[in-house]
Write a structure and sequence with these properties.
Oligomer: single chain
InterPro entries: AASS, NAD(P)-bd_dom_sf, Sacchrp_dh-like_C, Sacchrp_dh_NADP-bd
Keywords: Oxidoreductase
Domain Saccharopine dehydrogenase NADP binding: 4-120
Structural class: alpha/beta
Organism: Flavobacterium chungangensis
Shape: globular
Domain Saccharopine dehydrogenase-like C-terminal: 126-437
């Protein structure tokens, strides 16, 4: 039996573990599912004969090294900053490594040693990053193989609530880490290229500069810009492209509503609010409003945000129970962002019967034989339930499939890498289709941004 060590049994690991267990007899696999919580590891392995749950504190180097030494391959589903010690142990014990996280500078620094030891350190093999890379490179490589020149590449992805579970005014619920949602877009201006010109959007304006998207059968969406759309320009071989933009998908109206929190300062994570533990929700929002001897918190909020009496934005705030004087924050030494996360989690947690949804949308503009053309590629995935969510499926399945391909010698290029080579993306995308992760590609009229072209 080949021992697959999975470190981290959180929400994103459920589909990964189920897939590998389903293949365990024919592929001669034994899974060791390691987590700080033994009960969580047991819940995910469900007494399967080809799986062993393990309580593992990754900060205990002896325990960690022992587990890695006994593995044939290691999958780390830990937060990104915790991968590096796992990776160093994999080098020491000559083990391949698979993660769904962005390649950090520390991980990239291990590239030469990984190549020297003929080890594959596959990263960014989840959803975003992951499926986005693979589905994009497939089409880009096809365009290039025909002699086409890329002019435009836009890529959008969003974790949303499925239509049948979409029952609040924000058309949104938390389907992944709430903190990441609250802090989205912070840390510098969003930057991208539009018709050959560099563009920048400061955080204060990010949620008022959106692009609209239509997905057949699912309606209209909007997308706001990711912080750095240019990160993969060279990786994708798009150094000369005229338009390059990456964005996050939400339902129409979400960004305008979220901008209210940004303008008030409620997403700030840089300072602590005094007395936050005993603060009510009403006191929290009042903290960001000017003093007035007679105006209520509601009136002050309307005035500062310029909300008219018939504006749906007001109903969205009311739905969150933001003005409740009796609800307590109950978080000591909390930042505004932490308190906002707590308030939103009260309203936006998925109910037991709720399902989530992943939407991915790529636009490829190119020139072939003097003619401008465009391909739009769209993927929608609906979750099964609270355990096997669309997020868990689209993050976990590519990790699992890549792991088997590496074990079986189908992926052979060594080094620290992301899945942009044909030997990686072709078999993974093909197998993902069997699990309902299907991209529908359409030829559409090319639409650039320069009106002088028409």
């Amino acid at each position: 039996m080949r021992n697959v060590l999975i470190i981290g049994a959180g929400r994103s690991a459920s589909s990964l573990i189920r897939y590998l267990l389903s293949k365990s007899n024919e592929e001669k696999l034994h899974l060791t599912v390691a987590d700080l919580s033994l009960n969580l590891a047991k819940a995910k392995t469900q007494n399967h004969p080809n799986a062993t749950p393990l309580s593992l504190d990754i900060f205990n180097s002896d325990e960690r090294k022992k587990a890695i030494a006994n593995a044939s391959i290691v999958i780390s589903m830990l937060p990104a900053h915790l991968h590096i010690e796992i990776a160093k142990d994999c080098l020491e014990f000559k083990k391949h490594l698979v993660t769904a996280s962005y390649i950090s500078d520390a991980m990239q620094a291990l590239n030469e040693e990984a190549i020297k030891n003929n080890l594959i350190f596959m990263n960014e093999i989840g959803l975003d990053p992951g499926i986005d890379h693979m589905s994009a490179m497939k089409v880009i490589d096809e365009i290039r193989s025909k002699g086409g020149k890329m002019l435009l590449f836009e890529s959008f992805c969003g974790g949303l609530v499925a239509p049948e579970s979409d029952n609040n005014l924000w058309n949104y619920k938390f389907t992944w880490a709430p903190r990441n949602v609250v802090l989205a877009g912070q840390g510098g201006a969003a930057k991208f290229i539009q018709e050959g010109t560099y563009k920048y959007i400061p955080y204060s304006a990010l949620f008022r500069r959106t692009e609209f998207l239509e997905v057949e059968g699912y309606g209209k969406f909007e997308a706001y810009s990711n912080r750095d759309s240019l990160k993969y320009r060279s990786v994708y071989g798009l150094d000369d492209i005229l338009t390059l933009y990456r964005g996050t998908i939400r339902r129409v109206g979400y960004s305008r509503a979220w901008n209210m929190f940004v303008q008030l300062g409620m997403t700030d994570d840089s300072y602590i609010l005094e007395g936050s533990e005993n603060m009510s929700y009403r006191q929290f929002i009042n903290s960001f409003l000017p003093y007035h001897p007679t105006d209520s918190v509601e009136i002050k909020t309307r005035l500062i945000l310029k909300i008219d009496q018939d504006d749906i934005m007001w109903d969205k705030l009311l739905e969150l129970d933001l003005f409740n004087p009796d609800k307590k924050v109950n978080l000591p030494n909390a930042t505004p962002a932490q308190i906002l996360e707590k308030i939103l989690t009260d309203s936006w947690a998925l109910e037991p019967e709720d399902k989530d949804m992943i939407v991915m949308y790529h636009k490829f503009g190119y020139e072939l034989n003097g003619e401008k053309k465009q391909i739009d590629s769209k993927m929608v995935c609906i979750g099964e339930d609270q355990t096997y969510t669309a997020m868990a499926k689209t993050v976990g399945l590519p990790v699992a499939i890549a792991t088997l391909l590496i074990l079986n010698g189908k992926i052979t290029t060594p080094g620290v890498q992301l899945p942009i080579k044909k030997e990686v993306y072709e078999p993974i995308l093909k197998e993902l289709e069997e699990y309902g992760v299907i991209f529908n590609e359409q030829n559409v009229p090319y639409f650039g941004y320069n009106p002088d072209l028409f």
